[in-house]
Amino acid sequence: MSHTETAVQSPSKSRLRVGYGLVRDLLKIHPKIFAIAVAGASVYAVCTVASSFGVAYLVDHVILPRFETGKIDAGVYLVGAAIVICIGLLRAFGVVIRRSFAGISNWRTVESISMQLVRHIMSQPLFWHKRKMTGDLVARVGVDSDAAAEVLGPLPFSTSVVLLVFLTGGWLLIVDVPLGLVAISVIPILLVLNVGYQRRIDKHYDTAQHELGSLSSAVHESFDGVMVVKAFGAEDRETRRLSVISTRLKEARIRAVSARSTFEALLDGVPSLVNILLLVVGAMRVDSNSMSVGELTSFIYLFTLLIFPLRIIGYVLSSVPHSASGYKRVREILDESVELDPQTLILESSANCGVRLEGVSFGFGKDLPDVLNDVTFEIAVGKTVVIVGATGSGKSTLLSVMAGLLQPNHGNVWIANRSAAIVFQEPFLFSGTIRHNIDMGRALSDSVMHDSLYLAAADEFVSALDDGVNTVIGERGISLSGGQRQRISLARAIAQQSSVLLLDDTTSALDTVTESLVIDRLRHSKNIVTTIIVASRPSTIALADEVIFIENGQVSDQGIHANLMVRNENYRLLMQSFEHDREQGGL
Amino acid sequence: MNEPVSRFGSARTIGRGMRVAPALSNGIALTFLFAFIGTGARLVIPILIQQSIDHGLQPGNIRVSYIAVLGLIGSGFVLVSSLSLRVATKRLGTRAEEGLFTLRIKLFDHIHRLSLADHNDEKRGALVSRVTSDIETLTMFFSWGGLSLLLDGSQMIAVASVMLAYDWRLALVAFAVSAPLVLVLRLVQSRLVYAHNISRERNAQLLGVFSEMVSGAETLHAYKATDLMITSVAKDVRNRGDSNIRAGIIGAFLFPSGEVFAVFTVMAVVGAGLLIGPAGGLTAGALVGFVFLTYRFLEPIAEFTEVIDQTQSAVASLRRVLGVLDTPIGPPQPSHPIALPAGVLSIDFVDVSFAYGSRLDEVDDDTPVLNSINLHIPGGQHIALVGPSGSGKTTVARLIARLADPTVGSVMLGGVALHRVDNSDLRRRLIVVPQEPFLFADTIAYNLRFAAPDATDNELTNVFSDLEIEDWLESLPHGINTNVGQRGGSLSAGERQLIALVRAAVVRPDVLILDEATSSVDALTEVRISKALSKLAQGRTTVSIAHRLSTAARAERVVLLEQGRIVEDGSHEQLLALKGQYAKQYETWVTSTQSNLGS
User: Fold this and answer.
1) Domain containing B156: what range?
2) Residue-wise pLDDT tens digits, A316-330
3) Residue A59's pLDDT is what?
4) What is the rounded CA–CA span in Å between residue A223 and residue A161?
5) What is the domain count for chain B?
6) Nearest neighbour of A264 by CB, restricted to B89, B211, B451
7) What's the topology of domain A342-579?
8) Does the keyword Transmembrane helix apply (chain A) (predicted)?
9) CA distance B96 to B94
């Protein structure tokens, strides 16, 4: 699918054209599977018409002679029966093929669309992800791609209905023109009735669905806030508020039911009336020797068979708008071009230099103030440095820029061997084994795995688990404490064997003893690693070689903690506020 | 209800449901009658064909006028029956909606009144799905399954009656040949249900994988693991597709099986009809009519058997809904309430023990949270509750607010036992500010009016001035009309706390219960919160659940709880002098924060 296709993007286009554009795009993905489904549908349509020949044959050559002449011709009966049964089986076979392959076509297309989305989303850099809502993206990959291809399921059936209508019409006209005209004239009426009905009822269902959505979010909120509801004795008021929305839902549903009952009655009554008309007109034709009783019977039989597909064609067509809106939301993501990966802009630092930033500025948008403003500093290889600053001073952003996750507007970043591993404030662990979370799918030697766990001080609690590193965590496994999760994510970063380790308040979930153990082990590890820690705990700051003090997105001071305490008034005040009330004393 | 509804059989569950929501069963007999007449139109064609062939279309004796008269009568009948069908469909749908509306409102009301023990995070999802998805299952049932039970059932009974009336021998042949269809359908359907369950599971799993992929994007990028993620997602996507295709193929066999049986049945009926012949009293018209009747008889069977599964899940939903309605509500209202005395109120705990018993599910967790607590808080005192998490601080606060009743003993407010106090009286006099205050996704004014529905904008802004935080209000883009976002998400944690304080102040309560926030708050907001707090606490009995030792140090009196018991009780200075648990914790806190900096 090319990016230039905009078939479903204009709301002014008619439903039919929207449907055409959508179907054309979808069919390009797996055309062969769809063709098999259509072939099955054609077998079904042909056999449906053919089965009425069988009925005519049975009535004219077997049933009527038996009651008129009293003779049973077993041979004729068996031949007739064999034909009718064969046609019936072939027709059933057509249905099985049509439905099976319609399903395959639908789901294989969903697979293709969702994988296309997955690849596209995964190739977008972090900055793109930060601008998107998680829930919305998940809905587009998980729900909209399903909806987009939904129309493919019933589509082969629709083609068989069209074929059926033409075959029936043609055959009826060939056998008897007046009777054929009666039957054919009614088919478009039924079709229009159906489509009109579906449109009207869809409107009611949409309203009801909308009301259901608002009811469900109101219920969520009301039960979420039950403490407040109870604390202010507002139970009755809340029930009244919800019952107002429920009433709207009920009324929308009753309107839908009312419309539906009218149309159900029409769709039931009109074909029966047409059938009666066929019988009366047919009797006249038999009277004028234009056709046999058997042919008349088979006409009525065929018309009976047509009613069911004509009834549900409206329902089938109603999936078009739903699919189209799903496809539109899918295309919105696919049509965005892939942005530059900022990791490619990181430069390799010279020997003895761990990290170097020069004139780095960063802002989240043109209209928003810069978060980082002309940041310049250099850190020697092997140093452990803390970045200190008040909430909102730009520390985490700075770390993301160094990790090559955010692209600076100005300035350059040099990293030793261009390899930095970052550990986020909120550790994100994937559901799966601990091993999987540390190796991230790459095969790691046992010694690297062991060393990583040891350096992160995670070795003890992991080996205490029954399955060690093969323990499953997450939804289907055990849950770890905040400190344990942090240490696993730290082990993951260490396992990358990068030259620079970036820790965003990572050790805050650890007790002070474990924290100093981790920092000590990192400092004495055999690989010379430059470690940069964003920290707000005095105990962490005390463990560092050097402090970089950030104020309003700028480096305001750099040096040893004790020196900064003496020379920098703002730094001293910040340290005091950290001290004040920060520790809860373990109570 | 002595017997839990979870042990009710289907019939009893439906019976209970109809008593709770009478609209569901009102005039059901009449609805059924209309449905029965309504399906009559489907019999008109076979009967007309039989009549025409036997009396109007005999060779050499075609009676067009006779058939035309028959056609007129038939058309009249079709009209009546279509009208009847419309009435039946509308009656069923409307009454179902009315009934489900009643059920929904009863659920809201009941759930709001359940005790907090039934409102924890684990159970909340279940409660929401009772009101939404379970009621929706019932709606779906009434609009599709229930309708088809009604119409298909009527059709099969009507067609079978006509078949028996025409020729009981042929009818028996038809029933006998088509009977195995029911077995085939049950077999295929049970496989289909199983296949659908698997695809539902995989669908849910895949959504989980997608959301992990999107929320973990930062980590995946940082570790260059996106390609690995794509490979693993591709596997899940394929699996999900496969399971849906499998279910689709099983379904593909279900639908035509009815038609295959119809073909065989029709051939058997025709064969038997030929053998019986006119000598057995059969007519050609009846035999041809039978061909049509057989199709009409088998037509609804597939749908009918499918509805059985739908009915089972609808009954299961109804049972769950009734189960919630049977859960006893939280602290009951007193029948003869005693009014709280005017002025500041004292608080007394007399031998209070408490255990969270759960009733919504079968798991019982009866470990006592509080153990024989005795406590007297004089009116106007400011007291801080301290203790490790799980010590029972929050429970003490909840019992004072009567968000739950003690298992043993009694809690008194102003000398009146709480279970004798009218709920609305209590809510006017006592306010709780929770740790994570809940805000509705609306304006600040809306959230404040939750406490005082009739307050004017002016009255609301005045409360900000009373608490000396009007400067904060002025800094907001739209003042009290600023939207706070979902759960107050557009505000910081500290600002949410401020709104909760203002909301409490709007009520002008005599007793204030504060659960201190643990999350860190920026310095300026911190200052505002403590200023507003001290203003708010003036002249009120105040109970703070303190998470910071500095807060405890500022209180008039400190009560230290451990494992549901009071271990130390006195002023901050007294407890320090006691050199007990509190003093020890305080020392380590003071030294740890300072020594770290000194190194």
Assistant:
1) 9-166
2) 777 777 788 889 989
3) 87
4) 49
5) 2
6) B89
7) Rossmann fold (3.40.50)
8) yes
9) 5
